[in-house]
Amino acid sequence: MAAWRKVTDRVHAEDGRIFAQLLHTGRIGHPSLLPDGLIPVGASAIAAKHQVFTPDGLQDCVTPKELSETEILDTISDFANAARNAIEAGFDGVELHGANGYLLHQFLASNSNQRTGAWGGSLEGRLRLMVETTRAVADAVGGQRTALRISPGNPFNDISEQDLEPTYTALVEAINPLGLAYLHIAESADRSLTNGLRRAFDGTFVLNPNTPGRPTGVEELELLEDGTADLLSYGVLFIANPDLPARLADGGPFNTPDQSTFYGGDATGYTDYPSRS
Ligand SMILES: Cc1cc2nc3c(=O)[nH]c(=O)nc-3n(C[C@H](O)[C@H](O)[C@H](O)COP(=O)(O)O)c2cc1C
Q1: Quick check: CB of 232 below 6 Å from ligand 1?
Q2: What is the pLDDT of residues 25-48, one digit of tens each?
Q3: What is the pLDDT of residues 71-102, one digit of tens each?
Q4: Which ligand 1 atom is at minimum distance from the Cα of 262?
Q5: What domains are there in the chain, each with its CATH number?
Q6: Which terminal residue of the chain, N or C, has fewer Cβ atoms less than 10 Å from its own Cβ?
Q7: Active site residues
Q8: For residue 62, with 0-12 CB atoms within 10 Å meaning exposed, 13-18 middle and 19 or more buried, which class applies?
């Protein structure tokens, strides 16, 4: 927390706002990344057909241990405590990672959650961990300091989802009463699903638009003009351009992202791209 305080103070000194994304990777993991020989946990003991980065290179995901009811409740508390710590460290809020095939998404998708009982089975059961975790975090730090990121239909990390529209509409309806800071969509399905979720959600709608074959760019700013979203989020372009907002305002130019430095290594490729000024 003391280390993060230096970062949050710098962001606030520049009039920025910063949310910490809280992520539990669930079954996307490997014992070599965990202390004391622990094995990853998941909704069910079903290995993801996927590989993860480890110190020894890419390795297959292992079969996770199915979380017990007590461990699920502990996990929800862990998220709430992490949120409190983030606020204590100066973050303006936290974003829960309900996207991209990590733990909350694993509970939602029926190919990774084959539990019976309260935390699986029906749609309500599969939604429960995402909704209850969001509620616990909102209770801990306030709805206006809590956000949720989802990626409807994204098969990344061996997720397979059906019935996207009813599933995600039910999720949005369940979280609407929490008064969240924003809902963040990592879009990979069709735009009509996005538009439906925007209509269903009561609050600020953040979109990371689907742009096959290239990162989100200056072209997507029109999605703000036409009301598709309230805010846009940028991944790759923000990694490569520390002064991205100013560059977007001017229409560019942009530094070229170096993919070889993504997802690991050291600070190279994260803190050394030049600003213009
Ligand atoms: C190196 C790298 C790391 C990423 N880490 C995360 C992450 O921790 N959490 C997350 O929700 N998305 C993560 N993403 C995905 C981005 O948030 C974003 O959805 C993706 O890059 C597509 O958007 P873009 O076209 O703006 O880059 C990461 C992407 C890259 C390239």
Answers
A1: no
A2: 999 999 999 999 899 999 999 999
A3: 999 999 999 999 999 999 999 999 999 999 99
A4: 1
A5: 2-233 (3.20.20.70)
A6: C
A7: 102
A8: middle
Position in ligand 1 atom list of the atom nearest CA 214: 25
Determine the angle formed by the axes of helices 191-200 and 164-175, rounding to 10 degrees.
20
Give the residue whose CA is nearest to atom 17 of ligand 1: 235
Q: Omega of the bond prior to 253 within 30 degrees of 0, cis?
A: yes
Which 8-state DSSP code applies to residue 179? -
pTM, two decimals, is 0.97
Interatomic CA distance for residues 133 and 78, integer angstroms: 9
* Virtual torsion, Cα 219, 222, 228, 232, nearest 10 deg: 60
What's the pLDDT band for 211 if we cut at 50, 70, 90?
A: very high
Q: Which residues of 232-264 are buried (b: 16+ CB within 10 A; e: fewer)?
A: bbbebbbbbbbebeebbeeeeebbebeeebeee
Ligand 1 atom closest to Cα of 95? 11
Q: Give the residue, by CA position, lying nearest to ligand 1 atom 3.
A: 263
> Cα(first)–Cα(last) distance of the chain, in Å?
30
The CB of 110 under 6 Å from ligand 1? The reply is: no
Which has the closest alpha carbon to 254: 229, 277, 237?
A: 237
List pLDDT tens digits, range 150-198.
999 999 999 999 999 999 999 999 999 999 999 999 999 799 999 999 9
Residue from 28, 208, 214 to probe ligand 1 pocket by mutation (most atoms less than 8 Å from CB): 208
- Owner of token pair 């924003």: 182
